[in-house]
Amino acid sequence: MILVLRALGVGDLVTAVPVLRALRAAYPSRELALAAPAWLAPLVDLVGGVDRLVDTAGLDRPVRVTAAPQVAVNLHGRGPQSHRLLAATRPGRLLAFANPEAGHTDGPRWSADEHEVDRWCRLLSWYDITADRSDLDLRRPGVAGSPTGVTVLHPGSKVPAKRWPAERFAALARALTEQGHRVLLTGSADERALAERVAEAAGLPPDAVLAGRTDLGALAALVAHARLVVSGDTGVAHLATAYGTASVVLFGPVPPTWWGPPPDRPRHRVLWAGEGDWPRWDGVGSHPTMAALRLDEVLAAVAEVERLVRVSGAVAA
Predict the structure, then answer these.
(1) Are 23 and 73 a contacting pair, CB within 8 Å?
(2) How far apart are CA 307 and CA 314, in angstroms?
(3) What is the pLDDT of residues 61-119, one digit of tens each?
(4) Is 150 helix (H, G, I), strand (E, B) or coil?
(5) Exposed, middle or buried: residue 30 (CB in 10 Å: 0-12, 13-18, 19+)?
(6) Residues 204, 171: Cα–Cα separation, whole Å
(7) Are 268 and 253 a contacting pair, CB within 8 Å?
(8) Residue 260 DSSP code
(9) What are the backbone dihedrals phi and psi of residue 7, each rounded to the nearest 5 degrees, phi first?
(10) CA 228 to CA 179: how far, in whole Å?
């Protein structure tokens, strides 16, 4: 068995897709088990190549495996806690970044200033396993009753600092509706109140709020068949990249060079105001770098990606 630890969220899983596929190719006859939260199962199915999901949410509990893996791969972090969690499964070999504190001196050094996709591809390269960092596409789910051709706005984020102000999302929703977009608002159950506030301010009907009403599989289908996605630096943005859905991604305190869509995918636009000196964030509301992003900038980026979609469609035809 090859055991891979990635006990995180949607964006974390999607950015690990090239490495998961490289491991599948490197060990074609071995069972590939992914230690990740069980709620990610619908998305894991869309990655392909993973034989088993081992329910693992965070690093607080042991990874439950029935036998020691031949190889364990730490795609969770730099250690030491994640290294020790995998070492407790008694693997024949551990592929991970060097961390002497965890007793692991093999592997490359960790670099904080690196794109998340490149980080894990570099880790495998150290162990002579080649991963294609462009291999980010997910299997496209069927429509199965999911709305198609809609514009998805995702105003929430687990990290409050990464949220664009709700009133600007509302203004964006109004403007796009006036342009003929069918706007739907997504989010987790915890973000439903935020989505409802945006919908009410934008004059959208209650059924435009899907936050807390879709599982991960339905969300993936919605994004895969959407017209446009506008969100902060969160999992929905990575789904848009994986499906080639036109998107505008709003970055704040974290630079897009760490988590943004690949520059060779023209249907995605990034807006970032993170360079320069900013006042210290007081922890309330959006981070100053997010608040600095103007509505007109977002609308201009939307117009640009939609034009590119039209041009690419005309060329393909």
Answers:
(1) yes
(2) 11
(3) 999 999 999 999 999 999 999 999 999 999 999 999 999 999 999 999 999 999 999 99
(4) coil
(5) middle
(6) 11
(7) no
(8) S
(9) -85, 65
(10) 13
CA 36 to chain centre: 14
3-state secondary structure 209-251: ECCCCCCHHHHHHHHHCCCEEEEECCHHHHHHHHHCCCEEEEE
The predicted model gives 111-131 an average pLDDT of 97
Residue 281 pLDDT greater than 70, yes or no: no
pTM of structure: 0.93
Q: Is 197 exposed, middle or buried (0-12, 13-18, 19+ CB in 10 A)?
A: middle
Decide if 177 contacts 183 (C-beta within 8 A): yes
The mean pLDDT value for 189-207 works out to 97
pLDDT tens readout for residues 13-30: 999 999 999 999 999 999
d(CA 40, CA 42): 6
What is the enclosing helix (H) or strand (E) of 74? strand 71-74
Average confidence (pLDDT) over 222-249: 97
H or E element at residue 41: helix 41-47
Tokens 């039209």 locate to: 310
